[in-house]
Amino acid sequence: MSDYQIFKIGEFQVQVDERLKLWKSQNFSRRLWSKDPTLWFSETRPEITDRLGWLSLPEMMHDRLEELVSFAEQVKDEGMRHFVLLGMGGSSLAPDVFQKTFGNADGYPQLFVLDSTHPSAVFSVEEKLDLNRTLFLVSSKSGTTLETLSLSRYFWNKVSQAVEQPGRHFVAITDPGSPLQKLAIERSFRRVFEANPDVGGRYSAFTYFGMVPAALIGMDVHRLLDRARIASENSAFFISEEKASGLILGAALGEIAKKRDKLTFFASSSISSFPDWLEQLIAESTGKDGKGILPVAGEPSVSSEDYGQDRLFVFLTLKGEDDREMEERMNALKQAGHPLIQIELKDKFDLGREIFSWEVAVASAGSVLGIHPFNQPDVQLAKDFTGKAMEKGGKKAEESAVDTWSIDDSEALDQALKEWLSQSKPRDYIALQAYLAPTPKTTRALQDIRLELLHRTRSATTLGFGPRFLHSTGQLHKGGQNTGLFLQIIDEPGMGLPVPESGYDFRNLIKAQAEGDYRALKERGRRVLRVNLKTDVAKGLKILHDLIQKE
User: Fold this and answer.
1) Cβ distance 440 to 449 under 8 Å?
2) Crossing angle of helices 351-369/93-102, nearest 10°?
3) CATH topology for the 56-225 domain
4) Residue 496 above 80 pLDDT?
5) Model pLDDT, residue 533
6) Mean pLDDT score of the chain, rounded to an integer?
7) Which end of the chain has fewer CB atoms within 10 angstroms, the N or the C?
Protein backbone atom coordinates (compact mmCIF):
# COMPACT_ATOMS: atom_id res chain seq x y z
CA MET A 1 0.00 0.00 0.00
CA SER A 2 1.24 3.52 -0.76
CA ASP A 3 1.67 6.04 2.03
CA TYR A 4 -0.84 8.45 0.49
CA GLN A 5 -3.68 5.95 -0.05
CA ILE A 6 -5.76 4.83 2.94
CA PHE A 7 -8.33 2.08 2.35
CA LYS A 8 -11.14 1.68 4.87
CA ILE A 9 -13.18 -0.83 2.90
CA GLY A 10 -14.14 -3.42 5.53
CA GLU A 11 -15.30 -6.76 4.14
CA PHE A 12 -14.15 -5.83 0.63
CA GLN A 13 -10.49 -5.91 1.63
CA VAL A 14 -10.45 -9.71 1.30
CA GLN A 15 -11.66 -9.59 -2.32
CA VAL A 16 -9.22 -6.82 -3.18
CA ASP A 17 -6.30 -8.76 -1.71
CA GLU A 18 -7.35 -11.88 -3.61
CA ARG A 19 -7.59 -9.91 -6.85
CA LEU A 20 -4.07 -8.52 -6.39
CA LYS A 21 -2.71 -12.01 -5.68
CA LEU A 22 -4.42 -13.29 -8.84
CA TRP A 23 -2.96 -10.44 -10.88
CA LYS A 24 0.48 -11.19 -9.47
CA SER A 25 0.19 -14.82 -10.56
CA GLN A 26 -0.91 -13.62 -14.01
CA ASN A 27 1.93 -11.09 -14.38
CA PHE A 28 -0.69 -8.36 -14.83
CA SER A 29 1.73 -5.41 -14.61
CA ARG A 30 4.20 -6.80 -17.11
CA ARG A 31 1.40 -7.67 -19.54
CA LEU A 32 -0.20 -4.21 -19.14
CA TRP A 33 3.03 -2.46 -20.05
CA SER A 34 3.54 -4.80 -22.99
CA LYS A 35 0.01 -3.85 -24.13
CA ASP A 36 -1.36 -7.36 -23.94
CA PRO A 37 -5.05 -7.24 -25.02
CA THR A 38 -5.80 -10.58 -23.31
CA LEU A 39 -5.93 -8.75 -19.99
CA TRP A 40 -9.44 -7.79 -21.02
CA PHE A 41 -10.57 -10.30 -23.66
CA SER A 42 -9.31 -13.64 -24.91
CA GLU A 43 -9.97 -12.66 -28.51
CA THR A 44 -8.65 -9.63 -30.41
CA ARG A 45 -10.73 -6.47 -30.05
CA PRO A 46 -10.20 -3.10 -31.77
CA GLU A 47 -9.19 -0.04 -29.73
CA ILE A 48 -7.11 -1.87 -27.13
CA THR A 49 -3.47 -2.23 -28.20
CA ASP A 50 -3.75 0.98 -30.24
CA ARG A 51 -5.18 2.91 -27.25
CA LEU A 52 -2.49 2.26 -24.65
CA GLY A 53 -0.06 4.98 -25.67
CA TRP A 54 -0.90 6.92 -22.50
CA LEU A 55 1.31 4.54 -20.51
CA SER A 56 4.48 6.13 -21.90
CA LEU A 57 3.31 9.77 -21.91
CA PRO A 58 4.98 10.86 -18.64
CA GLU A 59 8.34 9.93 -20.14
CA MET A 60 7.73 10.80 -23.78
CA MET A 61 6.17 14.24 -23.26
CA HIS A 62 9.16 15.50 -21.28
CA ASP A 63 11.01 15.88 -24.57
CA ARG A 64 8.30 18.25 -25.85
CA LEU A 65 7.86 20.52 -22.85
CA GLU A 66 10.49 23.09 -23.79
CA GLU A 67 8.75 23.56 -27.13
CA LEU A 68 5.45 24.20 -25.32
CA VAL A 69 7.01 26.58 -22.79
CA SER A 70 8.62 28.52 -25.62
CA PHE A 71 5.31 28.76 -27.46
CA ALA A 72 3.55 29.94 -24.30
CA GLU A 73 6.20 32.62 -23.72
CA GLN A 74 5.73 33.83 -27.28
CA VAL A 75 1.97 34.14 -26.82
CA LYS A 76 2.46 35.90 -23.49
CA ASP A 77 4.98 38.36 -24.92
CA GLU A 78 2.54 39.31 -27.67
CA GLY A 79 0.13 40.53 -25.00
CA MET A 80 -2.61 37.93 -25.47
CA ARG A 81 -5.06 38.38 -22.61
CA HIS A 82 -7.31 35.38 -23.14
CA PHE A 83 -7.41 32.10 -24.94
CA VAL A 84 -10.54 30.09 -25.57
CA LEU A 85 -10.49 26.32 -25.79
CA LEU A 86 -13.12 25.05 -28.19
CA GLY A 87 -13.44 21.35 -27.42
CA MET A 88 -15.50 18.63 -25.80
CA GLY A 89 -14.87 15.82 -23.31
CA GLY A 90 -11.27 14.66 -23.29
CA SER A 91 -10.21 17.78 -25.18
CA SER A 92 -11.57 20.19 -22.57
CA LEU A 93 -11.87 18.60 -19.14
CA ALA A 94 -8.19 18.45 -18.10
CA PRO A 95 -7.50 22.05 -19.22
CA ASP A 96 -10.60 23.17 -17.31
CA VAL A 97 -9.29 21.49 -14.16
CA PHE A 98 -5.85 23.10 -14.64
CA GLN A 99 -7.32 26.62 -14.96
CA LYS A 100 -9.65 26.18 -11.97
CA THR A 101 -6.94 24.63 -9.79
CA PHE A 102 -3.87 26.68 -10.67
CA GLY A 103 -5.31 29.78 -12.33
CA ASN A 104 -3.22 31.66 -14.88
CA ALA A 105 0.19 32.88 -13.78
CA ASP A 106 0.96 36.61 -13.83
CA GLY A 107 1.16 37.90 -17.39
CA TYR A 108 -0.21 34.73 -18.94
CA PRO A 109 -3.61 34.66 -20.67
CA GLN A 110 -6.70 33.44 -18.86
CA LEU A 111 -8.31 30.29 -20.20
CA PHE A 112 -12.00 30.07 -21.07
CA VAL A 113 -13.24 26.57 -21.84
CA LEU A 114 -16.24 26.67 -24.14
CA ASP A 115 -17.87 23.25 -24.34
CA SER A 116 -21.50 24.34 -24.65
CA THR A 117 -23.57 25.00 -27.76
CA HIS A 118 -26.19 27.00 -25.89
CA PRO A 119 -26.28 30.42 -27.60
CA SER A 120 -26.27 32.25 -24.27
CA ALA A 121 -23.10 30.40 -23.24
CA VAL A 122 -21.40 31.22 -26.52
CA PHE A 123 -22.37 34.89 -26.30
CA SER A 124 -21.32 35.08 -22.64
CA VAL A 125 -17.77 34.06 -23.55
CA GLU A 126 -17.69 36.28 -26.63
CA GLU A 127 -18.59 39.44 -24.73
CA LYS A 128 -15.65 38.93 -22.34
CA LEU A 129 -13.09 38.90 -25.17
CA ASP A 130 -10.95 41.45 -26.92
CA LEU A 131 -10.63 39.54 -30.19
CA ASN A 132 -7.43 41.37 -31.06
CA ARG A 133 -5.82 39.86 -27.96
CA THR A 134 -7.44 36.41 -27.89
CA LEU A 135 -6.13 33.04 -29.07
CA PHE A 136 -8.51 30.19 -29.94
CA LEU A 137 -7.52 26.56 -29.42
CA VAL A 138 -9.60 24.28 -31.62
CA SER A 139 -9.22 20.84 -30.01
CA SER A 140 -10.65 17.68 -31.51
CA LYS A 141 -8.94 14.31 -31.80
CA SER A 142 -11.07 13.18 -34.74
CA GLY A 143 -11.26 16.65 -36.24
CA THR A 144 -14.97 16.08 -36.90
CA THR A 145 -16.59 16.95 -33.55
CA LEU A 146 -19.79 18.84 -34.42
CA GLU A 147 -19.74 21.18 -31.42
CA THR A 148 -16.07 22.08 -31.83
CA LEU A 149 -16.33 22.77 -35.55
CA SER A 150 -19.48 24.85 -35.06
CA LEU A 151 -17.79 26.99 -32.41
CA SER A 152 -14.67 27.30 -34.58
CA ARG A 153 -16.69 28.54 -37.54
CA TYR A 154 -18.49 31.06 -35.38
CA PHE A 155 -15.34 32.61 -33.91
CA TRP A 156 -13.41 32.42 -37.18
CA ASN A 157 -16.09 34.63 -38.69
CA LYS A 158 -15.92 37.05 -35.75
CA VAL A 159 -12.11 37.26 -35.76
CA SER A 160 -12.03 37.65 -39.55
CA GLN A 161 -14.07 40.82 -39.17
CA ALA A 162 -11.74 42.19 -36.48
CA VAL A 163 -8.19 41.46 -37.71
CA GLU A 164 -6.34 41.18 -41.02
CA GLN A 165 -4.76 37.77 -40.33
CA PRO A 166 -7.32 35.68 -38.42
CA GLY A 167 -5.21 32.53 -38.72
CA ARG A 168 -2.68 34.04 -36.28
CA HIS A 169 -5.37 33.80 -33.60
CA PHE A 170 -6.10 30.09 -34.11
CA VAL A 171 -4.29 26.92 -33.03
CA ALA A 172 -5.43 23.38 -33.74
CA ILE A 173 -4.82 20.26 -31.67
CA THR A 174 -5.85 17.13 -33.53
CA ASP A 175 -4.74 13.75 -34.84
CA PRO A 176 -2.45 13.69 -37.89
CA GLY A 177 -4.35 13.82 -41.18
CA SER A 178 -7.70 14.77 -39.62
CA PRO A 179 -10.16 17.11 -41.36
CA LEU A 180 -9.33 19.74 -38.72
CA GLN A 181 -5.65 19.58 -39.59
CA LYS A 182 -6.47 20.11 -43.26
CA LEU A 183 -8.75 23.05 -42.37
CA ALA A 184 -6.02 24.59 -40.19
CA ILE A 185 -3.53 24.39 -43.05
CA GLU A 186 -6.01 25.90 -45.52
CA ARG A 187 -6.73 28.82 -43.18
CA SER A 188 -3.11 29.35 -42.12
CA PHE A 189 -3.65 28.63 -38.44
CA ARG A 190 -0.78 29.86 -36.33
CA ARG A 191 0.10 26.34 -35.23
CA VAL A 192 -1.07 22.74 -35.53
CA PHE A 193 -0.16 20.35 -32.74
CA GLU A 194 -0.41 16.73 -33.86
CA ALA A 195 -1.81 14.56 -31.08
CA ASN A 196 -0.86 10.96 -30.29
CA PRO A 197 -3.06 8.66 -32.41
CA ASP A 198 -2.67 5.80 -29.90
CA VAL A 199 -4.22 7.74 -26.99
CA GLY A 200 -7.98 8.04 -26.56
CA GLY A 201 -9.54 11.37 -25.62
CA ARG A 202 -10.24 10.67 -21.96
CA TYR A 203 -6.66 9.43 -21.45
CA SER A 204 -5.15 12.48 -23.17
CA ALA A 205 -4.42 14.82 -20.23
CA PHE A 206 -0.67 14.49 -20.77
CA THR A 207 -0.81 14.84 -24.54
CA TYR A 208 -0.93 18.18 -26.35
CA PHE A 209 -4.65 18.34 -25.51
CA GLY A 210 -3.80 18.94 -21.87
CA MET A 211 -0.23 20.22 -21.98
CA VAL A 212 -0.66 23.05 -24.51
CA PRO A 213 -3.37 24.79 -22.43
CA ALA A 214 -1.39 24.09 -19.25
CA ALA A 215 1.69 25.78 -20.69
CA LEU A 216 -0.34 28.71 -22.00
CA ILE A 217 -1.67 29.60 -18.54
CA GLY A 218 1.88 29.53 -17.20
CA MET A 219 1.68 26.26 -15.25
CA ASP A 220 4.91 24.53 -14.25
CA VAL A 221 4.34 21.69 -16.72
CA HIS A 222 7.69 20.09 -15.86
CA ARG A 223 6.64 19.74 -12.24
CA LEU A 224 3.22 18.34 -13.16
CA LEU A 225 4.71 15.76 -15.50
CA ASP A 226 7.41 14.83 -12.97
CA ARG A 227 4.64 13.78 -10.58
CA ALA A 228 3.04 11.73 -13.34
CA ARG A 229 6.37 10.04 -13.96
CA ILE A 230 6.60 9.14 -10.27
CA ALA A 231 3.15 7.56 -10.52
CA SER A 232 4.27 5.72 -13.62
CA GLU A 233 7.24 4.31 -11.71
CA ASN A 234 4.95 3.34 -8.81
CA SER A 235 2.92 1.18 -11.20
CA ALA A 236 5.79 0.06 -13.46
CA PHE A 237 6.07 -3.46 -14.85
CA PHE A 238 8.76 -4.43 -12.33
CA ILE A 239 6.70 -3.35 -9.30
CA SER A 240 4.75 -6.13 -7.59
CA GLU A 241 1.02 -5.87 -8.22
CA GLU A 242 0.43 -5.77 -4.45
CA LYS A 243 2.57 -2.61 -4.19
CA ALA A 244 1.55 -0.79 -7.40
CA SER A 245 -0.65 2.13 -6.33
CA GLY A 246 -2.64 2.29 -9.57
CA LEU A 247 -3.40 -1.43 -9.54
CA ILE A 248 -4.34 -1.42 -5.86
CA LEU A 249 -6.86 1.32 -6.58
CA GLY A 250 -8.10 -0.48 -9.69
CA ALA A 251 -8.61 -3.73 -7.81
CA ALA A 252 -10.65 -1.87 -5.19
CA LEU A 253 -12.78 -0.05 -7.76
CA GLY A 254 -13.52 -3.21 -9.72
CA GLU A 255 -14.24 -5.54 -6.81
CA ILE A 256 -16.32 -3.10 -4.78
CA ALA A 257 -18.34 -2.06 -7.87
CA LYS A 258 -19.86 -5.56 -7.97
CA LYS A 259 -21.93 -4.56 -4.94
CA ARG A 260 -21.47 -0.79 -4.66
CA ASP A 261 -21.35 0.86 -8.06
CA LYS A 262 -21.87 4.53 -7.04
CA LEU A 263 -18.38 6.03 -6.68
CA THR A 264 -18.95 9.23 -4.71
CA PHE A 265 -16.25 11.92 -4.54
CA PHE A 266 -15.50 14.57 -1.97
CA ALA A 267 -12.51 16.85 -2.51
CA SER A 268 -10.69 19.66 -0.72
CA SER A 269 -11.81 23.04 -2.04
CA SER A 270 -8.51 23.79 -3.83
CA ILE A 271 -8.84 20.63 -5.95
CA SER A 272 -12.63 20.48 -6.08
CA SER A 273 -12.76 20.45 -9.90
CA PHE A 274 -10.64 17.29 -10.25
CA PRO A 275 -13.65 14.90 -9.92
CA ASP A 276 -15.07 16.53 -13.07
CA TRP A 277 -12.15 15.03 -15.00
CA LEU A 278 -12.48 11.70 -13.18
CA GLU A 279 -16.17 11.62 -14.09
CA GLN A 280 -15.50 11.16 -17.79
CA LEU A 281 -12.61 8.74 -17.30
CA ILE A 282 -14.70 6.45 -15.11
CA ALA A 283 -18.13 6.71 -16.73
CA GLU A 284 -17.05 6.49 -20.36
CA SER A 285 -14.53 3.74 -19.67
CA THR A 286 -16.73 1.44 -17.58
CA GLY A 287 -20.33 2.22 -18.60
CA LYS A 288 -21.10 -0.38 -21.26
CA ASP A 289 -22.46 -3.89 -21.79
CA GLY A 290 -25.04 -3.27 -19.06
CA LYS A 291 -22.31 -2.68 -16.48
CA GLY A 292 -20.52 0.33 -15.10
CA ILE A 293 -19.27 2.45 -12.23
CA LEU A 294 -21.27 5.64 -11.74
CA PRO A 295 -19.05 8.56 -10.69
CA VAL A 296 -20.89 11.00 -8.43
CA ALA A 297 -19.14 14.38 -8.43
CA GLY A 298 -20.23 17.61 -6.77
CA GLU A 299 -23.24 16.11 -5.03
CA PRO A 300 -24.64 18.11 -2.10
CA SER A 301 -23.74 16.43 1.17
CA VAL A 302 -26.31 14.81 3.46
CA SER A 303 -26.06 12.84 6.69
CA SER A 304 -24.40 9.43 6.51
CA GLU A 305 -27.76 7.73 7.25
CA ASP A 306 -29.26 9.18 4.06
CA TYR A 307 -26.92 7.26 1.77
CA GLY A 308 -27.92 3.89 0.35
CA GLN A 309 -25.84 0.73 0.53
CA ASP A 310 -24.62 1.17 -3.05
CA ARG A 311 -21.88 3.75 -2.40
CA LEU A 312 -18.09 3.73 -2.25
CA PHE A 313 -16.70 7.07 -1.08
CA VAL A 314 -13.42 8.62 -2.20
CA PHE A 315 -11.94 11.59 -0.34
CA LEU A 316 -9.31 13.61 -2.20
CA THR A 317 -7.57 15.74 0.40
CA LEU A 318 -4.87 18.39 0.06
CA LYS A 319 -2.27 18.39 2.80
CA GLY A 320 -2.35 21.52 4.91
CA GLU A 321 -5.83 22.54 3.83
CA ASP A 322 -7.96 22.72 6.95
CA ASP A 323 -11.31 21.12 6.23
CA ARG A 324 -12.94 20.03 9.45
CA GLU A 325 -16.27 19.46 7.74
CA MET A 326 -14.76 16.88 5.40
CA GLU A 327 -12.93 15.21 8.29
CA GLU A 328 -16.20 14.94 10.20
CA ARG A 329 -17.91 13.55 7.11
CA MET A 330 -15.23 10.88 6.73
CA ASN A 331 -15.56 9.83 10.35
CA ALA A 332 -19.34 9.67 10.16
CA LEU A 333 -19.24 7.50 7.04
CA LYS A 334 -16.70 5.16 8.64
CA GLN A 335 -18.91 4.78 11.71
CA ALA A 336 -21.93 4.11 9.50
CA GLY A 337 -20.03 1.24 7.87
CA HIS A 338 -19.58 2.73 4.40
CA PRO A 339 -16.36 1.76 2.58
CA LEU A 340 -14.11 4.68 1.77
CA ILE A 341 -10.75 5.52 0.30
CA GLN A 342 -8.72 8.57 1.28
CA ILE A 343 -6.06 9.89 -1.09
CA GLU A 344 -3.86 12.72 0.13
CA LEU A 345 -2.10 15.15 -2.20
CA LYS A 346 0.86 16.95 -0.66
CA ASP A 347 0.34 19.87 -3.06
CA LYS A 348 -1.66 20.71 -6.17
CA PHE A 349 0.96 19.30 -8.53
CA ASP A 350 0.18 15.84 -7.21
CA LEU A 351 -2.73 16.05 -9.64
CA GLY A 352 -0.15 14.77 -12.13
CA ARG A 353 0.34 11.70 -9.98
CA GLU A 354 -3.38 11.18 -9.54
CA ILE A 355 -4.24 11.55 -13.22
CA PHE A 356 -1.86 8.75 -14.15
CA SER A 357 -2.80 6.56 -11.16
CA TRP A 358 -6.50 6.80 -11.95
CA GLU A 359 -5.86 5.99 -15.61
CA VAL A 360 -4.13 2.77 -14.54
CA ALA A 361 -6.85 2.08 -11.98
CA VAL A 362 -9.78 2.50 -14.37
CA ALA A 363 -8.12 0.44 -17.10
CA SER A 364 -7.42 -2.38 -14.64
CA ALA A 365 -10.90 -2.15 -13.08
CA GLY A 366 -12.22 -2.82 -16.58
CA SER A 367 -10.45 -6.18 -16.47
CA VAL A 368 -12.25 -7.04 -13.23
CA LEU A 369 -15.64 -6.05 -14.65
CA GLY A 370 -15.09 -7.73 -18.02
CA ILE A 371 -15.56 -4.59 -20.10
CA HIS A 372 -13.57 -2.78 -22.79
CA PRO A 373 -12.16 0.32 -21.08
CA PHE A 374 -11.05 2.22 -24.18
CA ASN A 375 -14.06 2.32 -26.50
CA GLN A 376 -17.36 4.24 -26.28
CA PRO A 377 -19.87 2.29 -28.41
CA ASP A 378 -23.01 4.13 -27.28
CA VAL A 379 -21.80 7.72 -27.66
CA GLN A 380 -22.55 7.57 -31.38
CA LEU A 381 -26.23 6.75 -30.80
CA ALA A 382 -27.12 10.26 -29.57
CA LYS A 383 -25.06 11.77 -32.40
CA ASP A 384 -27.05 9.78 -34.95
CA PHE A 385 -30.38 10.93 -33.51
CA THR A 386 -29.10 14.51 -33.40
CA GLY A 387 -28.26 14.30 -37.09
CA LYS A 388 -31.74 13.01 -37.85
CA ALA A 389 -33.30 15.83 -35.81
CA MET A 390 -31.31 18.40 -37.76
CA GLU A 391 -32.24 16.84 -41.10
CA LYS A 392 -35.89 16.45 -40.19
CA GLY A 393 -36.37 19.99 -39.04
CA GLY A 394 -34.03 21.73 -41.47
CA LYS A 395 -32.91 25.04 -40.06
CA LYS A 396 -35.51 24.95 -37.31
CA ALA A 397 -34.76 21.44 -36.04
CA GLU A 398 -38.35 21.27 -34.76
CA GLU A 399 -39.25 18.82 -32.01
CA SER A 400 -41.82 16.20 -32.91
CA ALA A 401 -43.16 13.14 -31.13
CA VAL A 402 -41.03 13.92 -28.09
CA ASP A 403 -42.97 14.01 -24.82
CA THR A 404 -42.19 17.36 -23.25
CA TRP A 405 -43.81 18.85 -20.15
CA SER A 406 -44.10 22.62 -20.00
CA ILE A 407 -43.25 24.57 -16.87
CA ASP A 408 -46.31 26.70 -17.69
CA ASP A 409 -48.65 23.77 -17.00
CA SER A 410 -47.72 23.06 -13.39
CA GLU A 411 -50.66 20.71 -12.78
CA ALA A 412 -49.72 18.40 -15.66
CA LEU A 413 -46.03 18.64 -14.77
CA ASP A 414 -46.79 17.80 -11.14
CA GLN A 415 -48.53 14.61 -12.22
CA ALA A 416 -45.71 13.71 -14.60
CA LEU A 417 -43.15 14.20 -11.81
CA LYS A 418 -45.13 11.91 -9.50
CA GLU A 419 -45.30 9.18 -12.12
CA TRP A 420 -41.60 9.54 -12.94
CA LEU A 421 -40.48 9.46 -9.31
CA SER A 422 -42.74 6.51 -8.57
CA GLN A 423 -40.52 4.43 -10.85
CA SER A 424 -37.53 4.91 -8.54
CA LYS A 425 -36.18 1.73 -6.96
CA PRO A 426 -33.39 1.01 -4.46
CA ARG A 427 -29.90 1.23 -6.03
CA ASP A 428 -31.16 3.53 -8.80
CA TYR A 429 -29.58 6.89 -9.58
CA ILE A 430 -31.01 10.17 -10.83
CA ALA A 431 -29.30 12.17 -13.58
CA LEU A 432 -30.12 15.82 -14.17
CA GLN A 433 -29.38 16.65 -17.81
CA ALA A 434 -29.46 20.40 -18.21
CA TYR A 435 -29.45 21.68 -21.79
CA LEU A 436 -29.06 25.19 -20.41
CA ALA A 437 -26.35 27.83 -20.32
CA PRO A 438 -24.03 26.76 -17.45
CA THR A 439 -24.08 29.92 -15.34
CA PRO A 440 -23.27 29.96 -11.59
CA LYS A 441 -26.87 30.99 -10.79
CA THR A 442 -28.34 28.17 -12.86
CA THR A 443 -25.89 25.67 -11.36
CA ARG A 444 -26.90 26.65 -7.82
CA ALA A 445 -30.59 26.23 -8.66
CA LEU A 446 -29.93 22.82 -10.19
CA GLN A 447 -27.94 21.79 -7.12
CA ASP A 448 -30.95 22.71 -4.97
CA ILE A 449 -33.13 20.47 -7.13
CA ARG A 450 -30.51 17.75 -6.90
CA LEU A 451 -30.59 17.93 -3.11
CA GLU A 452 -34.38 17.66 -3.06
CA LEU A 453 -34.23 14.57 -5.28
CA LEU A 454 -31.57 13.06 -3.04
CA HIS A 455 -33.74 13.60 0.04
CA ARG A 456 -36.84 12.37 -1.79
CA THR A 457 -35.40 9.12 -3.15
CA ARG A 458 -32.10 8.52 -1.27
CA SER A 459 -30.70 7.69 -4.68
CA ALA A 460 -27.32 8.89 -5.93
CA THR A 461 -27.65 12.01 -8.08
CA THR A 462 -25.57 13.48 -10.89
CA LEU A 463 -25.69 16.78 -12.76
CA GLY A 464 -24.44 17.42 -16.27
CA PHE A 465 -24.80 20.27 -18.73
CA GLY A 466 -25.59 19.31 -22.30
CA PRO A 467 -24.03 18.71 -24.68
CA ARG A 468 -20.87 18.51 -22.52
CA PHE A 469 -21.95 15.34 -20.69
CA LEU A 470 -22.73 13.55 -23.97
CA HIS A 471 -18.96 13.15 -24.36
CA SER A 472 -18.61 11.93 -20.78
CA THR A 473 -21.32 10.28 -18.69
CA GLY A 474 -23.54 9.97 -21.76
CA GLN A 475 -21.87 6.64 -22.55
CA LEU A 476 -22.81 5.17 -19.18
CA HIS A 477 -26.35 6.58 -19.37
CA LYS A 478 -27.03 4.50 -22.46
CA GLY A 479 -24.57 1.62 -22.24
CA GLY A 480 -24.40 0.97 -18.50
CA GLN A 481 -26.88 -0.71 -16.20
CA ASN A 482 -30.50 0.39 -16.59
CA THR A 483 -30.73 1.95 -13.13
CA GLY A 484 -30.99 5.61 -14.06
CA LEU A 485 -33.89 8.05 -13.95
CA PHE A 486 -33.22 10.97 -16.26
CA LEU A 487 -34.57 14.49 -15.89
CA GLN A 488 -33.86 16.37 -19.10
CA ILE A 489 -34.29 20.13 -18.74
CA ILE A 490 -34.42 22.44 -21.76
CA ASP A 491 -35.28 26.07 -22.37
CA GLU A 492 -36.13 28.36 -25.27
CA PRO A 493 -33.16 30.66 -25.89
CA GLY A 494 -34.00 34.19 -26.90
CA MET A 495 -31.07 34.41 -29.33
CA GLY A 496 -30.00 32.08 -32.11
CA LEU A 497 -26.42 32.99 -33.16
CA PRO A 498 -26.08 31.63 -36.71
CA VAL A 499 -23.18 29.25 -37.35
CA PRO A 500 -21.40 30.40 -40.54
CA GLU A 501 -20.92 27.84 -43.34
CA SER A 502 -23.59 25.56 -41.82
CA GLY A 503 -27.19 26.62 -42.46
CA TYR A 504 -28.13 26.33 -38.76
CA ASP A 505 -27.72 28.33 -35.58
CA PHE A 506 -26.74 27.37 -32.03
CA ARG A 507 -30.33 27.46 -30.83
CA ASN A 508 -31.28 24.84 -33.44
CA LEU A 509 -28.21 22.80 -32.65
CA ILE A 510 -28.70 22.47 -28.89
CA LYS A 511 -32.41 21.70 -29.38
CA ALA A 512 -31.50 18.92 -31.80
CA GLN A 513 -28.85 17.58 -29.40
CA ALA A 514 -31.34 17.45 -26.53
CA GLU A 515 -33.89 15.70 -28.71
CA GLY A 516 -31.26 13.28 -30.00
CA ASP A 517 -30.21 12.42 -26.46
CA TYR A 518 -33.82 11.91 -25.40
CA ARG A 519 -34.47 9.55 -28.28
CA ALA A 520 -31.27 7.62 -27.60
CA LEU A 521 -32.26 7.13 -23.96
CA LYS A 522 -35.73 5.96 -24.93
CA GLU A 523 -34.18 3.61 -27.49
CA ARG A 524 -32.27 2.03 -24.60
CA GLY A 525 -35.42 1.72 -22.49
CA ARG A 526 -34.47 4.41 -19.98
CA ARG A 527 -36.90 6.28 -17.72
CA VAL A 528 -36.88 9.89 -18.93
CA LEU A 529 -38.85 13.00 -18.02
CA ARG A 530 -38.35 16.05 -20.23
CA VAL A 531 -39.22 19.55 -18.96
CA ASN A 532 -39.25 22.79 -20.94
CA LEU A 533 -38.52 25.86 -18.79
CA LYS A 534 -39.48 28.18 -21.65
CA THR A 535 -37.70 31.58 -21.68
CA ASP A 536 -37.29 32.35 -17.96
CA VAL A 537 -34.84 29.75 -16.69
CA ALA A 538 -34.57 31.07 -13.13
CA LYS A 539 -38.33 31.16 -12.69
CA GLY A 540 -38.74 27.75 -14.29
CA LEU A 541 -36.15 26.13 -12.03
CA LYS A 542 -37.82 27.62 -8.95
CA ILE A 543 -41.18 26.16 -10.00
CA LEU A 544 -39.57 22.78 -10.70
CA HIS A 545 -37.82 22.80 -7.32
CA ASP A 546 -41.05 23.63 -5.48
CA LEU A 547 -42.96 20.86 -7.27
CA ILE A 548 -40.32 18.28 -6.35
CA GLN A 549 -40.15 19.56 -2.78
CA LYS A 550 -43.83 18.96 -2.18
CA GLU A 551 -43.81 15.41 -3.55
Assistant:
1) no
2) 140
3) Rossmann fold (3.40.50)
4) yes
5) 98
6) 95
7) N
